[in-house]
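Much of what follows relies on a compact textual record of a protein's fold. A complete example follows; check for yourself that the lines match position by position.
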Amino acid sequence: MREPTGQSSGAAQWRNWAGDQSCRPAATARPTSTAEILVELDRAEREDLHVRVAGAGHSFSEIACTDGLMISLDGCAQVLDVDRSSGLVRVQGGITIARLSAELAKHGLAMENLGDIDVQSISGAISTATHGTGALLRNISSQVHELTLALADGATLQCSAEREPEVFAAARVGLGSLGVIAEVTLRCVPAFTLRGIDAPAPLDETLERFEELALRNDHFEFFVFPHATTALTRTNNRTEEPARPRGRVAAYANDVLLTNHAFGLFCRIGRRVPSQIPRINRLVTKLAGTTKRIDRSDRIFASPRLVRFTEMEYALPRERTPEAVRRVMEMVPARGFAVPFPIEVRTVAGDDALLSTAAGRDSGFLAVHMYEGMEWRPYFQAVEQIMDELGGRPHWGKRHFQTAATLRDRYPGWDRFQGIRARLDPKGRFSNEWTDRVLGPPGAPGA
């Protein structure tokens, strides 16, 4: 039998991007192919190790943590096949969205919608229902045409809408609990250019017009700081105008110096003197002017994130999103929370993945953040109470306090997912403390 390749044993610590989730796996493996992934799964079976997969570590939850075998997909990051005529592109599961976008651009292709962070692996983004914004556009997992799973028993399984459709419905948002996403075939579109405009607008007016703005623009979102009355809106629309990429100096000045370093300074001041946060919120809002960019789609979608934070995000029925924003904005000063980060609001079209946060309904998303080193739990718990009352579903890659018991009734496909989980991983090889909490321990009633 072949020995595992690219492996290390011992207590090397793993941390996520935010630095607030960590674990010490018994062993770490860095395969470079599907065959090597299967070797590692055979090893896990022989040594009776639980297995979790680490992508780019950009989840804020404990989803990737394990005391067993951690499989890093950093070495599985290649484009395997491109069919420009059909738009189908097959890649390894560890490729980052940034690298994927650059490779697609060489072939005149693009993803139809992306989030604002591009350091995630495609498998991690799929597994957690990561999304961008667009009322008529679905999340990233909905752009998957086919998946190749490496299973706990050492076999591979290809699934699509035509082949193993029930597994496909589960695996597109599988939370790492069904197998390792070794390969992904994506349904891409011809490359396109976006015209992006960032502009301040009165919050009350933005909320009154929320449905109109969401439907009128290809991509609409806004940010609002607690204690401020102005929304910072962002609209991105397709254009036939030629791309006008910013120069390196201009991009650095805006994306790094202003958006990251200056904002980071404000956050540090707020952390040191929390009583000044309302004043800082209003100042940062006043400093935000109107900007326009025209560039390749992925360059408009993504922006660098250098200021560290932790985050919670909830999906809601889209029509309830303005109410959610108003209630959170009222709650923050009423409870005396010191919150230096803005609330982020986006929209996504409904889909049919069993555990997608947008399963069966057009959704609005409300995200809250807390700067590193500041107390986040009471604020997030207060926000979650509001989200619970409005039918919210938590983003799987972000913080929340839900359990399998509180989540089951929120997903029409919950029991179907659990049936697939029991079939593909009957021994619970891909479980950890987090999956035990949010899905239930393997074999438990309802799990």
